[in-house]
Design goal:
Layout (H helix, E strand, L loop, with lengths): L4 E8 L9 E8 L6 H12 L18 E4 L2 E4 L11 E5 L6 E3 L2 E2 L2 H6 L23 H7 L10 H5 L1 H5 L6 H11 L7 H8 L13 H5 L6 H26 L1
Parallel strand pairs: 1-5
Antiparallel strand pairs: 1-2, 3-4, 3-5, 6-7
This protein binds iron/sulfur cluster (SF4) and FE2/S2 (inorganic) cluster.
């Protein structure tokens, strides 16, 4: 049986020497069980060793192989070639600066993430035995938000990230929400100083694409809407609280 082959059109760009990105075509095998990452590895091993891209786990866990395939943000290790036509276009993730070829900038994300304090800020000392016990129903409230692998597909899919480079964006806000909803945490007011600032939740126009593309079933759009509601309720109840004190 003749092996199916496809053409991979890959965006190439080296900012130190290239004035703009170009496209390069490669003819590669499209085996039934191959994913886009296998095709890129084939190019690297057999056709062009200069092609640059990131990957590590090959099993949708490390979050490093995100890229645009035929215009959609996907994990290259999860995108089967059998689901694509004869020609496949591979580009770096949208809305991220490009370091080289398919490698996008993660530094901006890594710098902003700590600003929302993505860790537990307990309000009270742990009870006896130095542990907080948690019911499974309390875990269920935030569990899906713990599944994020920081792949940034949601950033590539979000039109607001494209419009405002300072927007905190879906996964950072979803992670802040993960801690806000944790029954052991008391840090929501501290986080809100950042998450409800002008580059936070109110920038989101609820397009919802972030949740659509997430490979781990996280719902950042839902998290952001829940945060908007909580923040609005805080704002409404503030005069009442001030009245109580006077
Ligand atoms: S929320 Fe989903 S799409 Fe966004 S970084 Fe986390 S895992 Fe990736
Ligand atoms: S290689 Fe780790 S998520 Fe794709």
């Amino acid at each position: 049986m003749t092996e199916r082959r496809i053409r991979l059109e890959v965006q190439r760009y080296r900012p130190e020497t290239d004035s703009e990105p170009t496209w390069e075509s490669y003819d590669v095998p499209a085996r039934e069980d191959w994913v886009v990452l296998d095709a890129l590895n084939y190019i690297k091993d057999h056709l062009d060793g200069t092609l640059s891209y990131r990957w590590s786990c090959r099993m949708a866990v490390c979050g490093s192989c995100g890229m645009m395939v035929n215009g959609k943000p996907v994990l290259a290790c999860k995108a089967f070639l059998r689901d694509y036509p004869e020609t496949v276009r591979v580009a770096p993730m949208a809305n991220l600066a490009v370091h080289r070829d398919l490698i996008g900038d993660m530094e901006t994300f890594a710098t902003r993430l700590p600003t929302v304090k993505p860790f537990l800020i307990p309000e009270v000392e742990p009870p006896q035995e130095d542990v907080f016990r948690q019911q499974s129903s309390e875990l269920a409230v935030y569990r899906q938000f713990t599944m994020c692998i920081n792949c940034l597909l949601c950033y590539a899919a979000c039109p607001q990230v494209g419009l405002n480079e300072n927007y905190l964006g879906p996964s950072i806000l979803a992670l802040a929400h993960r801690y806000n909803r944790d029954s052991r945490d008391g840090g929501r007011a501290e986080r809100e100083e950042v998450t409800a600032s002008e580059d936070g939740i109110w920038e989101c126009t609820f397009v919802g694409e972030c949740s659509e593309v997430c490979p781990k079933g996280v719902d950042p759009a839902g998290a952001i809407q829940q945060m908007k509601l909580a923040s609005s309720l805080d704002w409404i109840s503030r005069p009442l609280k001030r009245g109580d004190k006077s």
